[in-house]
Design a protein that fits this description.
The chain is built from 9 helices and 17 strands. It is α/β, with parallel strands linked by helices. The protein folds into 2 domains: 263 residues, Acetylglutamate kinase-like (Carbamate kinase, 3-Layer(aba) Sandwich), CATH 3.40.1160; 37 residues, no CATH class. An 8-stranded mixed beta sheet has the order 3-9-2-1-12-16-17-15, with helices on both faces. The chain has a 4-stranded mixed beta sheet with strand order 8-4-10-11. β13 and β14 form a beta hairpin. The radius of gyration is 19 Å and the shape is globular. The chain starts with 7 loop residues before the first strand and ends with a strand. Bound molecules: adenosine-5'-diphosphate and phosphoric acid mono(formamide)ester. The site of adenosine-5'-diphosphate has 15 residues, from loops. GO terms for molecular function: carbamate kinase activity. InterPro entries: AceGlu_kinase-like_sf, Asp/Glu/Uridylate_kinase, Carb_kinase. Keywords: Kinase, Transferase. Belongs to the carbamate kinase family.
Length: 320
């Protein structure tokens, strides 16, 4: 079903592309945002690329966590890894509905398949003791302080307010990548590794099942590993800014176009990219190219088709 010799592209869809303009995670707002995203993704498929799609889940998993905690006296709470799995299911089915419709209107034969996906992490990863992944809604400092008093970790995220942070270990490998490769090779657009994948550890004992652990993995870092494991040519990190900026948010800000790994690393070392937002995207772009990938692109959703078809959009890092 795919074009012979089609390029394989992994697209990592940011949380911003899946919520309302004000960050609303209301179902209608999510579906509307995903419908818009689906048009841009379908354009990439229409250009002949074999697309594997992954996505964030920060707003959604944070909201599930709140529901879980608030209802704990009525129904048994489930662990965070279960919440991640639940967000994979709801986001994948919504993406599949919208993407199938967008592919159909372009006369394309591809169909979308969502895959519940596990990602292996190390049980002793320092990310378990130093929570860093922002999830859920933004609240005022006063409200955050009430939750901090209950033992939760919250972080000042600037002008939008405070946000809860949870454990976020490094992804090591995508456990289900052979199934993803099989589906992609059979012509499906695969939605997988949502929210960075359900974190699991391997206790190393024969016959012992993998075990889910309570954390939320950064989806951009998982996307870099997934793109490598699938032998993709290009990793596209789709967010809400057309380019990575130097001096972001200041009068001297300037966009980065084509960059070398050395240049990007120097900017990262100088603290140009915020932890929990642009930082992991830049790190993911570097890791993919370091691992042998041809090209990483960071850009806004509106530019992803141009970025894949020709190197004339976004911040583009290529292998030297
Ligand atoms: N140096 C930078 N250049 C561009 N954007 C930056 C930079 N540093 C921080 N950001 C912020 O990163 C945001 C994108 O990250 P994030 O909100 O986590 O994206 P997503 O939810 O799409 O994955 C941008 O909206 C911007 O506010
Ligand atoms: N898991 C994850 O990285 O989600 P966001 O991209 O929504 O933060």
């Amino acid at each position: 079903m795919t074009t012979p010799g089609a390029r394989r592209v992994v697209i990592a869809l940011g949380g911003n592309a899946m919520t309302g303009p004000d960050g609303s995670a209301a179902p209608g707002a999510q579906r509307d945002a995903i419908a818009v995203a689906a048009q841009h993704i379908a354009d990439v498929v229409a250009a002949g690329a074999e697309v594997v799609l992954t996505h964030g889940n920060g707003p959604q998993v944070g909201n599930l966590l709140v529901k879980n905690e608030m209802a704990a006296h009525v129904v048994p709470p489930v662990p965070l890894d279960w919440n991640v799995a639940q967000t994979q299911a709801t986001i994948a089915f919504t993406l599949a509905d919208e993407l199938d419709a967008a592919l159909q209107t372009r006369g394309l034969p591809q169909r979308t398949a969502g895959l519940v996906t596990r990602t292996l992490v190390d049980a002793d990863d320092p990310g378990f003791t130093d929570p860093s992944k922002p999830v859920g809604r933004f609240v005022s400092r006063e409200e955050a302080e009430r939750f901090i008093a209950l033992g939760q970790r919250w972080e000042d995220r600037g002008e939008k307010g405070w946000r809860r942070v949870v454990a976020s270990p490094e992804p090591r490998s995508v456990v289900d990548y052979p199934a993803i490769a099989a589906l992609a090779g059979a012509g499906f657009v695969v939605v997988c590794a949502g929210g960075g994948g359900i974190p699991v550890v391997d206790d190393g004992r024969d016959g012992q099942a993998l075990r889910g652990v309570e954390a939320v993995i950064d989806k951009d870092l998982t996307a870099a590993i997934l793109a490598h494991e699938l032998g993709a040519d290009t990793l596209v990190i789709a967010t809400d800014v057309p380019n990575v900026m130097v001096d972001f948010g200041t009068p001297t800000q300037r966009p980065l176009g084509r960059v070398t790994a050395t240049e990007l690393r120097e900017h990262a070392a100088a603290g140009q990219f915020a932890r929990g937002s642009m930082g992991p995207k830049v790190e993911a772009a570097l890791r993919f190219v370091d691992s042998g990938g041809t090209r990483s692109v960071i850009t806004s959703l509106e530019h992803i088709a141009d970025a894949v078809a020709a190197d004339d959009a976004g911040t583009v890092l290529t292998a030297r």
